[in-house]
UniProtKB/TrEMBL annotation:
Keywords: Transcription, Transcription regulation, Transcription termination, Transit peptide. Belongs to the mTERF family. The keyword Transit peptide applies. One of its GO terms (molecular function) is nucleic acid binding. PANTHER family: CGI-12 PROTEIN-RELATED, TRANSCRIPTION TERMINATION FACTOR MTERF6, CHLOROPLASTIC_MITOCHONDRIAL-LIKE. It holds the Pfam family mTERF. The keyword Protein biosynthesis does not apply. GO terms for biological process: DNA-templated transcription termination. InterPro entries: MTERF, MTERF_sf. This is Uncharacterized protein.
Amino acid sequence: MKEQKTLGLEIGRILTRSVDDRIAPSISDLKTVLGSNDDVVKLLKTSAWFLKSDLQKTMMPNIEFLRNCGICSSQIVSYVFSFPRFFLLKPESIKQFVERADALGFDRKSNMFLAAIRMLSSMSEENWELKLKLFRKLGFSEDDIMSTFRRTPQVFAVSERKIKQVTDFLLNRTNVGISFIISHPMVLICSLERRLKPRLLVIETLESKNSLRRKVSMTTIYKMPDKKFREKYVVPYLKELEEVSMSIVGT
């Protein structure tokens, strides 16, 4: 009910604005960026507040600047849907985040460049320092931390609690060291309860019964799509896995 009331107030504010002075130009700008009326409608269903913003002062100059930084239009459009408020930041702020990414050694040609800028925009200086402190405590060198950020900026959005839990869990495995986590930071984003634990249980159970012809790497365990993992390591071994909880096997 509260969300419906908030949406109603939002729509009410939008409708009080001049169609010619704000709404029509905003729709025109969005169509220029997104390319079709259908995509404009799709975006406005979740982000109607675009219509109350002066996009010529925020979104349009921000997108132009990002394009000049070498970021392709298709990636920008994808981010408009995923992180719409990012594009309504003041252009001066976007430029500052780009400068920070440059200072951190980010390659503007990397397809992770926009992800890095967006991540920096979502973190306060204090939270950034806390995350750096956490990685140092876990055994990451300064170079390791920067390498992780350049390759997988999204890791810095993961909570400290989850990073600690995943790291502790993996380091307790006999064949996993900190070097693996440093080389594969995406593993820190994986769900511990829904992916890492159940998959390792399946593989360890099969290995203990000598059911597998070759050892399965941790990279395969955490990266393989769910459907393929079930088809390759669960369905053919249902008898061997009968001791494993079906709730876990079916994850």
